[in-house]
From TrEMBL:
Stretches assigned to the FZ domain: 25-142
InterPro entries per record: Frizzled/SFRP, Frizzled_dom, Frizzled_dom_sf, Sizzled_CRD
Protein source organism: Dromaius novaehollandiae (Emu)
UniProt keyword terms in alphabetical order: Developmental protein, Differentiation, Disulfide bond, Secreted, Signal, Wnt signaling pathway
Pfam families from the UniProt entry: Fz
GO cellular component assignments: extracellular space
Protein name as catalogued: Secreted frizzled-related protein 2-like
GO MF, one example: Wnt-protein binding
Gene Ontology biological-process entries: canonical Wnt signaling pathway; cell differentiation; non-canonical Wnt signaling pathway
Record-annotated disulphide pairs: 40-86, 105-129
Coiled coil: none
SMART domains per UniProt: FRI
Chain's gene name: LOC112990936
Family: Belongs to the secreted frizzled-related protein (sFRP) family.
Amino acid sequence: MFWTAKILAFALSTFLRMATGFDIGLSTKCVAIPKEMDMCHKIGYSEMRLPNLMGHTSMAEVILKSTTWQYLVHTDCHPHVRTFLCSLFAPICLDTFIHPCRSMCIAVRDSCAPVLACHGHSWPDSLDCDRFPADEDMCLASLAKEYNYLHKVLPKPVCQTCPAVEEFFTHKRILEVFCDNNFVKLSKKRTVLGDQEYNTECQVEFIIQGSILPYETQNMIQQWLLINENCTERMTQTHRPMVYLLVGNIEAGVVLVNQVYHWQRRDSQLTLATQKWRYHKCL
């Protein structure tokens, strides 16, 4: 959740549950949130307490341990994943430490643990939800219901079996695949300073029109690429810029990519299929 400095006091008064604050028993100091902690920028405050609630005593340790979690924030696996992690790694500089509530931990864990599992990791013992206070204590409470009321809840990508990358096909077969799915998306991969960066470009074309707007799917497909990173890396093993056509379904609140086509330069079959699709009628 993003807080502006202006509404921070109101947000905290909404989140906090009356009780005694948490004290780690160490002398703490207020320090600026380092620029390397991208996930904890623009959250309504610029200073954090050190040591933090993860027991990190040096800024070097904070940066090292927190950066491994930034990809999880980018997947947007839960509306409060940023709030949850930053409350631990970069706790706000108040007179007392404020833990996330147990309910927030459980909500974030249940949504984000499958993403970690997709990357071969389990939910860590250091974030065991039993260590956090109950909602009647002073803590950051989950506002999932309020969030869902104020924000449009979009379908979520999930960890899935890697779809095959098709390189040999006919335009007729591609049209059949389009008819069996309900969205088509172009995805480009480029290399930036030796690191892989995946971008979704071009408009999504919906085969079956629904309540999801084309621009909203760009973020959903980017999340799919992040969540299914092992699959994405296998699709793009070369360091040359690659273009792929992703075809899939959005059903029951879940985004699934069912087919991936490698769109090579001067690929006449894919070009022909996309041209014919405008006038094509599915059987």
